[in-house]
Amino acid sequence: MSSVADPFDLCLVKWFATLDIMASLAGIGTSPADEDRCWYLNKLPDTDPGFVDDISGYSPELMPMLARIGEMASRQDLRAAIEQGTQFILPRQLLEEAQELEASIISISDRAVSEATLKNHGSALAADLRHTHCAFVHATLLHLHRRVLLLQRDHGQVTEDIAHITNAIARINPLSPANILILWPMFSAGCETNLISERNLIQNRMGNMQNLGMGNYTRAKELMRAFWMSGSSLPWDVYFAKLEIELVLF
């Protein structure tokens, strides 16, 4: 399957890819058995793979990793163990793949923007995009740790993931358009953290986006607060799926 060359078509493919991956991570989408589900991964060109994309907010290298984690997290045995609160021993193959994915994600944690992006958007936004990529990398690790490796919310790796996300958010200009891109990292960290300081940072940043008319941030903020009020120990996607609430964080 050939990649897309036309700039407009490529923009549409990136937009759809981001939307589909975010839906998958929220537990929404087609069956994991659908072989054509991630067809868009083969449509993305190999140019500038090590640079942060200005449409998604992260390097395209992360896309197949996100897609795979979404597939892994959709396993019925994992979801059942989470919902029932039962102890579950990961199958060896799944554990090994998760560990390999973890190493791959960490290996791309530091990425800059391309010269073209720097020229088109300027140095301030270019700097912010480095931090959006960092937020996505650690949100990906958070999802892997919580939904695939089944680590508890108070586990050291989970709290470290959240700290990295909130630190990345804090480094982004509060009024930068780059904030529009990081709804998923913000929401994920916001739901998982119990620290008031981290919750306040995320609420305030979401409020900035609400003031700019971003309706998706309004709904996400309301659901995040509802999740806090529930006191649930479930991962947020499992919690909202049980309530039959669909939320695509994009």
In a nutshell, what does this entry contain?
The model is unreliable at 30-35 (pLDDT under 50). The chain has helices spanning 7-25, 62-73, 76-84, 92-107, 115-121, 123-148, 156-171, 183-192, 196-211, 215-230, 236-242. It has 11 helices and no strands.
Kindly list the characteristics that best describe this protein.
11 helices; mainly alpha; globular; 250 residues
Lay out the secondary structure.
Elements: H1 7-25, H2 62-73, H3 76-84, H4 92-107, H5 115-121, H6 123-148, H7 156-171, H8 183-192, H9 196-211, H10 215-230, H11 236-242
Keywords: Nucleus
Main location: nucleus
GO molecular function: DNA-binding transcription factor activity; transcription cis-regulatory region binding
Task: Give your account of this protein's structure.
The structure is a single chain. Helix 6 (123-148) crosses helix 8 (183-192) and helix 8 runs antiparallel to helix 9 (196-211). Helix content is 62%, strand content 0%. The chain is mainly alpha-helical and 250 residues long. Residues 30-35 have low confidence and may be disordered. The protein is globular, with a radius of gyration of 17 Å.
Q: What's the mean pLDDT score? A: 88
Give a count of the beta strands, DSSP E runs of length 2 or more: 0
Q: Helix segment count?
A: 11
Percent strand equals under 5%
Portion of residues within helices: 55-70%
Low-confidence stretches: 30-35
